[in-house]
Amino acid sequence: LIGDRLHDEELRVIQSGEDEALFIVRDISDRKQLELELQASEATLNRILDNVNAAISSFRVYANRDFEYEYWSAGCEQLFGYPLEAYADKHFWLSQVHPDDLGQMILPLFEDFFAERDATVEYRFWHPDGFMRWFSSSYTSRKIADDCWIVTTINYDVTDLKRAQVQFQRRTIELENLSHQAPCGYCSFNEQLQITQENDTTLRMLG
Fold first, then answer.
1. Which residues fall within 8 angstroms of residue 201, CB to CB, at 6 or more apart?
2. Euclidean distance between CA atoms 27 and 129, whole angstroms
3. 3-class DSSP state for residue 143?
4. 85, 97 in Cβ contact below 8 A?
5. Is there a contact between 26 and 11 (Cβ–Cβ < 8 Å)?
6. What are the backbone angles phi and psi of residue 173, rounded to the nearest 5°?
7. For the chain, does the N or the C end have fewer beta carbons within 10 angstroms?
8. Of residues 55, 103, 107, the one with CA closest to residue 81
9. What local confidence, expressed as pLDDT, does residue 15 receive?
């Protein structure tokens, strides 16, 4: 440290009758300042990601379909329900995905990764509370070497939305069944005044 600047010192001793020392001093103040700024920016970004109501992760994918995780946000523990230490086993997350969805939704994503295509899938995932939950995951991929891609994924719990959709569909079916059993005629029309739906009573009335 000279004054308020950091220096990297390299010492080389030359033998020439009497000992001589040559000091080469290289100023690295700007580089050290940049490193500190980058560390501060990374810490800020991690705090932001950890407070987002989503599970964010990144991993490397290789041409042979092997993969290595690089990052799990704190939201992963909150949404998926497992401690971050569990993901030290890179196959752990995959093992919690419903087998049907693993084969039909998750594994085919490798083709999107290799093509650097954005993709979004919905799948069922075993939560440690013993219930199956629905998640929606969006993936982005970027090639960083001849046989390597970096993939980032943002995951949301959509269980409540799925339950609402199921309830809506069930209610719609119930209403349709009631309309078919109604003692009075019922039918609906489109803008061209064409019948789009009618119940059994209407059919009997119209012959």
1. 180, 182, 183, 184, 185, 186
2. 57
3. strand
4. no
5. no
6. -65, -40
7. C
8. 55
9. 45
Q: How far is CA 131 from the centre of its chain?
A: 21
For residues 54 and 77, give the distance between their C-alpha atoms in angstroms, rounded to a whole number.
10
Alpha carbon separation from 205 to 184, 188, 193, 197, 199 (Å, rounded): 9, 15, 19, 15, 10
- Per DSSP, 175 falls in state H
DSSP-derived 3-state class of residue 30: helix
User: What does each C-alpha distance from 180 to 9, 190, 195 come to in angstroms?
Assistant: 90, 19, 15
Phi-psi sector, 36: left (phi>0), alpha (psi -120 to 50), beta = alpha
Token pair belonging to 145: 């070497």
The total number of residues shown for the chain amounts to 207
Place of tokens 């109501």: 53
Query: Which value, to the nearest 10 degrees, does the dihedral of the CA atoms of residues 117, 118, 121, 126 take?
Result: 100
**Structure token pair of residue 81:** 């329900």
Phi, psi of 153 (to 5 degrees): -130, 140
User: Using one digit for the tens of pLDDT, what is the confidence trace for 40-90?
Assistant: 555 554 554 455 568 899 999 999 999 999 999 888 898 999 999 999 999
Q: State the average pLDDT for the chain.
A: 78
Cβ burial, residue 66 (10 Å; 0-12/13-18/19+) = exposed
116: alpha, beta or left? (left if phi > 0; alpha if psi -120 to 50): left
User: 10 Å Cβ neighbour count for 140?
Assistant: 16
The one-character DSSP state at 165 is: H
